[in-house]
Write the structure tokens for this entry.
Amino acid sequence: MIKKARTDHPVQEEIASRWSPYGFSAQPVSSEELCSLFEAARWAASSYNEQPWSYLVAVRDDKDEYEKALSCLSEANRQWASTAPVLGFAVAHLRFNRNGRPNRVALHDVGMASANLCLEAAARRIFIHQMAGILPERVREIYRVPPDHEVVSGLAIGYAAGPEQLADPYKQRDLAPRSRKPLSQFVFGATWASPCDWVR
Amino acid sequence: MIKKARTDHPVQEEIASRWSPYGFSAQPVSSEELCSLFEAARWAASSYNEQPWSYLVAVRDDKDEYEKALSCLSEANRQWASTAPVLGFAVAHLRFNRNGRPNRVALHDVGMASANLCLEAAARRIFIHQMAGILPERVREIYRVPPDHEVVSGLAIGYAAGPEQLADPYKQRDLAPRSRKPLSQFVFGATWASPCDWVR
């Protein structure tokens, strides 16, 4: 399913076409594709090139591991995410390796890596639905995530299902158009809430 | 200047070519290009579609505004960032608009918007050097950033200078190859630090 943003200004194809489906098709994601997705995350920018991101990933073919990952989602997310062929979690290292001091932008930099991942995926017609609704302490315990790391988000990865494969309420959500506030509401100039004069 | 990543797996051109220059050319960034950059940020994913990102942006043509933005960078960053034709700050709204509750992934989602911005830029041969080294409380005061918002990062935006325009130590940094840890060090399977078997 294609769900392209109606943009006010031209952007790259994969930025306009990226979206977060609730329904995934049964088609698996190949190892080659997965390597390219995480390779894209790898090359994100980060403060002091710290690369504070790690990912825990399970594919459906490995039934036990997949069930383990699924059990770490909130109950509401487990419902729909169980159609995704790949599940994962993004984890942030909250301190700098080089000196042990807190990394104020660790979550921000993990977000940058995950955005790279999502755009590489979209370019390959693979889509990712990220979830804040996870059980972070369960992930920490089951996967033995070390201290000073925060489990940030869950990721459901796969090809989008066609609308005919979807049931409500997910069908309604996947068919609804994508929407965002306009640039004038978040790109400011001289002071907060005053749009830049070049913003149209 | 081109500084393409040597990737282990194929990724999109703009993901491989994005980098963070210390030296910018004098070439300005047009309003059209700026609109497309922030349009890309606009369409990032966010928890509950909250879109917790805002940007404060100054272009060099507006001398007073540019100097104001420059004064909000750390002294070390002011040195090199003053060559960039555009400066900005990314700001995170730490609470959900819909219910006022804390947004655990606000910084993460701002990072996703900024990554979109950087990739849209790279596709246009525009590069962004993001900075954690800023004076957040000065930004808050000068721009009147409201409570419950965190000033996350600075952004220097422009076209990269050629090496002949650069002086040390920035020349060395801009000429050094880009490096990242391999996938096996951050993509894990059954448990923390055990790479997935499909990671090569």
In short: The first helix of chain A runs from residue 13 to 17. Chain A has seven helices and five strands.
